[in-house]
Structure formats: C-alpha cells, structure tokens
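Appendix B, record 7
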Amino acid sequence: MEAHPLTCTHVDAFRFFTPAAEPRNAWQLGREHQLAHEQPGCLHANMDLYRIAFRLLPFVESTVVLDAFELALEIRTVDMQASPYDVGAYGLEPIPVEAPDGRAEYVRRQRDLAARAEPLRRALLDEVDRLLAHPAALAPEQPDARGGQ
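Structure tokens (predicted):
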C-alpha cells in the first residue's frame, strides 16, 4: 500500500490517519478545509447524508431519513470490508484494496454507492433551499412584547 498515493478528502476520515500516514495524504485536512475538499464520490461524505437528514427532522420526510440510514449502513459495510480490520467474524468478506482486483471492486462499489446517494443529496439540498427561502413560515409563533400571541 505504501506505493499508492493517499487522496483522502474527508476531514473526519483523515482524523483517524496514523501520524505516519498523515504526511502521505495529498492534503493535510482540518475542519476549515471541509467545503473545499468534500466530494460526492467519498464513502464518508455519503454516510454523512444520514446525519444531515436526521438533523433536518421534522422538515424532511421520514422516508428520506430512512433511505439515508439504509444507504449509510450499506456504505459502512463496504468501508469496513475495505479496512485493515478482520471483519470475518462479522460475516463480511474483506475487499483487498492492496490488490488490483480488490481496488477495482472497491471503485465499482464506491461509484455505485455515490450514484445512489446523489438523489438523497439533491433532496436534502432542495429541502434546505426551501427552508432558507421561507424561514418565517416555518418558525413557531413568538409572543409579542405584551405577552400575547
């Protein structure tokens, strides 16, 4: 694996790099770099769609949250299969990313998952745009200065 360049673009994934691996990554990432480096092909960015959908409840339909959860679960499974951990005890077959066939399998799955995440991403962005365009319509009524409604 040392012969392959590291191109992690997700700040939360980069946080778990070992000190020896950090300088091998194409970017030294911090929270301030997230918007510049985040990209929709990243497994971790696509898992984040669930976190975002959940935080947007009750403004998004629960089916969107459920779809995001189910996709995140599937993505986490692939992420763990491609990790250096022994996942056999959990009934998972490893994806040997250090071998050409394993890398090709990982890329195939990554592309498939990214394509399936795109409609969820679009639905969440559309909902946020709608909320930002009409915030007063969604805000609870506030009592006036005299204590009435």
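Remarks on this record: The chain is about 55% helix and 0% strand. The first helix runs from residue 11 to 14.
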